[in-house]
Write a structure and sequence with these properties.
Length: about 160
Amino acid sequence: MIGNFEHSTNEEVLSDVAIALFNIGLLYSKEEKNKDAIKVYNELINKFKTTKNKNTLELVVKAMVNKAARYKELLKYKEALKVYDEVIKKYEKNKEEKILIQVALSLHNKAILLGEMANEEQLQEVCDEIIEKFSNSKDEIISNIVLTAQVIKDKEKFNNSF
């Protein structure tokens, strides 16, 4: 399907190509074929990075978040952090809720990764950023991410009070 329709000019057909690429990346991820998943996610990202279609853009951003997660699985933490930072920087001002969820997830995943790397100072900065950017969100996923950031900050205050 991808080979037959990737050069189409029809927006609906291109959207289906993006969905197919995304799903292939997910399948590779589930099979723990992380390098293959990254390759497919890169294809999707590169092919559709300038799309104006909201649904396709959401897939591009999700592919970036998933790509970072694959890097993490490969223990390539610097690469994962770089991709999370790219999502945050590039899409933090986007008005679409679905895109902002991916930004919040990127910040959340970055915080988890920094915690695993024992980088407490940056972890606290990311938690502050999550709270600052998203504390007024009505979205349940984003609200849970904000609560997690607040718990991490409160835990640090509690641990440092002894």
